[in-house]
Design goal:
The protein is globular and about 70 Å long. 60% of the residues lie in helices and 8% in strands. The protein is mainly alpha-helical. A hairpin with a 2-residue loop joins β4 and β5. Strands 3-4-5 form a three-stranded antiparallel sheet, sandwiched between helices. Strands 1-2 form a two-stranded parallel ribbon. It has two domains: 165 residues, no CATH class; 54 residues, no CATH class.
Length: 263
């Protein structure tokens, strides 16, 4: 399959609030590696879902957690290895980032008739299974103290309370954009510039109304030594961002350096 076709499928899934996030995550893998065949992994999700309702457990979350541990050895992993971001690799190896593990929960839950929602906490990703917030990697329930501590690692301080907006279900668009953002950062750190740029392009396509995505792609293009593209994106950001955006001075400085270089 062509990468452009896979991108279109990702964008179509993002536009549908009821779309299958797990399938869309597999299309991200196909876009970045066209040799990936999503069908065996979709079949595996179907098979896992078929076993869930036959698992003796007190709660749906326990049934899913037990199955994912026993069949996949599902567990958390850092984001430095690209394989921890792609659903096919996580289904094969068991090691994944929280959001990739969460997509598996959502895919199995959807197929088993269990309500599973993605919860995009600051700096972390969890799932809510029939009303119970659960760690997507370990399957353990998360209390308010756990959620505050997870947020603290991102915010640099422990918040006094769990903000209600943190617990709102994340839309497919937001989940797919967050996955793509993570891949952008992973590949940039590895200096794999073509795949970093592909992820950045996908972020812009997924969130076209968010100036920050063009800023981040522009800064990436600057790192890649592509000043004209960088200048276009950063200029667009400055035109659309709030006048009091905290990074406006820095972006203005970069734009000035780019203009000097091109002149």
């Amino acid at each position: 399959m062509e990468s452009a076709d896979a991108r279109n499928l990702v964008l179509a899934a993002a536009a549908d609030p009821a779309s299958d996030v797990a399938a869309a995550a597999l299309w991200i893998a196909v876009e970045d590696s066209p040799s990936v065949d999503p069908e065996p992994w979709l079949d595996l999700l179907d098979d896992l879902a078929g076993h869930v309702n036959r698992t003796a457990a007190a709660r749906p979350s326990d049934a899913v957690a037990l199955l994912l541990r026993s069949r996949l050895n599902l567990r958390g992993a850092g984001g430095g290895d690209p394989r921890t971001h792609y659903l096919n690799s996580v289904l094969e190896r068991g090691a994944g980032t929280p959001i990739a593990c969460g997509a598996i929960w959502m895919g199995v839950g959807r197929r088993a008739g269990i309500r599973v929602e993605g919860i995009a906490l600051p700096g972390h990703f969890a799932v809510r299974v029939e009303g119970l917030v659960v760690d997507a990697c370990s399957g353990e329930p998360l209390e308010d103290d756990d959620l505050r501590q997870a947020a603290a690692r991102h915010l640099g301080r422990e918040p006094e309370r769990v903000e209600p907006r943190w617990l709102e279900p994340a839309s497919p668009r937001r989940i797919l954009a967050r996955m793509s953002r993570n891949l952008r950062g992973c590949y940039a750190s590895l200096e794999d510039w073509p795949l970093a740029l592909q992820a950045a392009d996908r972020c812009v396509d997924l969130l076209p109304d968010e100036p920050g995505e063009r800023r981040d792609r522009g800064l990436l293009l600057w790192q890649m030594g592509r000043p004209q593209g960088a200048l276009q994106d950063l200029g667009d950001y400055l035109a659309r961002a709030a006048p009091d955006a905290p990074d406006r001075a820095h972006v203005n400085e970069v734009v000035g350096r780019l203009r000097s270089f091109l002149n």
